Amino acid sequence: MINHSIHQITVTTPYAVGDVHMYVYKGESVSLIDAGVNTDEAWDQFVKGLKEINLQPSDIEQIILTHHHPDHIGLTGRFEHEPIVYGHRLVEPWLNQSDRFFEGYRDFFNDLYEKWDVPQRFRNIEKTIAVTKKFSSKSKLHHYLSEGDIIEGIPGMRVIETPGHAQSHLSFWDETNRQMIVGDVLLKHISSNPLLEPPENKGDARPKPLLEYRKSLAKLLEYDVEQFLPGHGNPFRGHKELIERRLERQAKRAENVLVYLKEKGPLTPYEICTWLFARQYESQFGLTMSETIGQLDYLESIGAVNNVESNGVSYYAPTMTHQK
Ligand SMILES: [Zn+2]
Fold it and tell me: How far does the centroid of ligand 1 lie from the alpha carbon of residue 69, in Å?
């Protein structure tokens, strides 16, 4: 029998999602799973939370990251003693923060937005990068994790690859206690956003985050989980109903998009976005655009729409009806 305990420490974030959780695994070694956001406030809250379980930052031997988003990797670089950092290999560029990486990121979105005929005022990738860097952390990834790995120092915790919300997303399954640390893959109170990212290698086809996300949810159905420990919101159980609900809602949204496309004919992803998220797209452009392209990828995957290019612009049209 392995003796260990998992403690949740919650810190505030400057993001709309609100608070984020970090988990301290006390066992054979002291590990931190996820590292909050890089603000002084979050660091202070973290140190205070550690104190309550009789620990201090220098006790953290290793940090294990669920995914690369700033509110999960933020404090990684704040430790003076440099704990060993584990995560998916795709977390690495976000920790290294090389100019070259961000140039590639910028090029990818500029090309895409050009193809989707996105007005200039929404092409604020520079700002997205600046905010991401500000709340992230510059540090090193020492070990890559992938499907099935057992992490040293936390025996019994197995790595499950769960891409979609982020390409780098991993979940951690503790079979002994039937607990799963699930990052942002499945949250009880809000649905997760599958976010568009550049492909790992420049020039490759872009990832299709919603399709990956659906697969990750289906994968979670295979596990008999007693308790999910998420990145945001309360721990929960009953994931089967929750996943069914999420998938149903997504399919319904896609259905609405298809009906609209049948009515309006070929449209660019941008045009669909302004209709689908009429109230949110101006303030949350990247997010709503990711969500829109997700629905289009899904409709394309079930053979309901085609992607056609005309004069360098990408349009989506239904396959079932004749175009006027
Ligand atoms: Zn996230």
Answer: 5
The torsion angles phi and psi of 113, rounded to 5 degrees, stand at -65, -30
Map out the domains of the chain with their CATH numbers.
Answer: 5-97+136-237 (3.60.15.10), 99-130 (no CATH), 249-318 (1.10.10.10)
Measured in angstroms, how far is the CA atom of residue 320 from the centroid of ligand 1? 36
The per-residue pLDDT string of the chain (324 residues; one tens digit each, 9 = 90 and over) reads 457 889 999 999 999 899 999 999 998 899 999 999 999 999 999 999 999 999 999 999 999 999 999 999 999 999 999 999 999 999 999 999 999 999 999 999 999 999 999 999 999 899 999 999 999 989 999 999 999 999 988 888 999 999 999 999 999 999 989 999 999 999 999 989 999 999 999 989 999 999 999 999 999 999 999 999 999 999 999 999 999 999 999 999 999 999 999 999 899 999 999 999 999 999 999 999 999 999 999 999 999 999 999 999 999 999 965 444
CA of 229 to the centre of ligand 1 (A): 14
CA of 256 to the centre of ligand 1 (A): 26
Burial class of residue 159 (count of CB atoms within 10 Å of its CB; 0-12, 13-18, 19+): buried
- Residues by chain with Cβ below 5 Å of ion ligand 1: 69, 184
